[in-house]
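TA notes. Do not distribute before section.
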Amino acid sequence: MAITKSQADYIDGIFENRRLENQIEMDRRRAEVYDAIPEIGELNDKAATLAADAARRSLSGDASAMEGLDKTLSDIAKQREALLLAGGYSADYLDDIYHCQICKDTGYVNGESCKCREEEISKMLYTNSQLSDILQKENFATFNFDYYSDDVIDEATNMSALENIKNVVASSKEFINDFDKDHSNLLFYGMAGTGKTFLINCITKELLDQSYSVIYLPAIQFFELMANHTFGRDNETAYNEVSSYDIMNCDLLVIDDLGTEVQNSFTDSCLFNCMNERLLHQKSTLISTNLSLEELFDTYNDRIFSRAIGEYKFFKIFGDDIRRKK
């Protein structure tokens, strides 16, 4: 998963704070118990002295230094537990405290990101996606095939709107399931109101739930943001925190409503460079547009579509205007 350095620092800070909070709580518990049951403090000091002495002797060449140490420390631990229970505490009251017993609050297991760290990344990505509220409403669990009719037929394929959307949804789920190894790209096209953005949100939620980084940008904001980065502008947008590095390196880049921007040589060049760069780095891109394929070819130069045709899976989404049905 591609997260920025600042995002990684933010996540690492969460785990550092957890370790600090746990250490503070452990210090408080020890002070409390040592004050109430001084014998436990004495036992802990004894255990520490025995362990340090054995280590010193072992380093000095005494082969028998560690003999019996484990049993002695185990006996001390049992005495400590008995004193804790007699004093009204749980037997593990002085054990190390961890939010996650698997990684011991380091965030990593054998050099790999722990599940708890992935969960924190997912939470962060949801917060930063500006879609968290929408995705609670628009996802595969709420996707409604009833909005697509068997009576609306596409002349080119002789397929109904309902049959078509079922195929598109199945392909979208395949895209998600193979996301980490296939690195494919999607382009949804069709008239406004047929559910393209809803389907994008379904895909986005599934990938965010798996802790992939997703950047969603309406086409107008995408090109405005790229112009800001290219020309060093300070124009304020809702997406100012998104860097050009993030756009090129996030796991999935979504450009919604391509064709709504003012089209010129800069937008052509910008779109080609972005698509090409992400293809080279095997980063997936999902584009939606209200334009037909013919209009796309007329609007954007051949260089863009000669690159796109072979590397993108095109899906036409058609049917009644869902907004009107709702």
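Switch to the second chain here.
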Amino acid sequence: MIKKRCISLFVENEAGVLAYISGLFSGKSYNIDSLTVGTTIDPTVSRMTITLTSDDRTFEQIKKQLNRSVWVIRVLDFTRADIFMKELMYVKITGCSDAELKKAAKLANTYDARIVETISDSVLMECVETERDNDRMLSVLKKEFPDRVEIVRGGNVAIETLKVSGNQIKGESK
């Protein structure tokens, strides 16, 4: 069954690792929907969050290939895990009247976006929501402000929840 997947990789923080990982995907014709990379608390280790759409068989092949890499320290499959996942997105709307600026501010509030800058006839919003929530907001903004919306999407980041089993939190005693 083809579905959206999310994996997190802990990799050596070295030049060429990102190129190797993305090359592994492109070499097998696997498409990456989103890829974000950042250093961890250990500056020698980076964490990648990769979202993709694939079937079960292909996804298992991807994980096996990643696990064989000398640069990959750990592969986490978030497909069935309890995770927090958000995407950073900036939205710029230009050529607005005063009424449209007020409408943009109302829409930002409705979708939990934050207005980071307003200058004359333009507004810049910052959205840190799920990809689906950001898509919903964009759909409305494109209708309200046709041909005046510019976006930058930073990709998903994800981390496991604190749940160990059931509703128990690490360190919590029953």
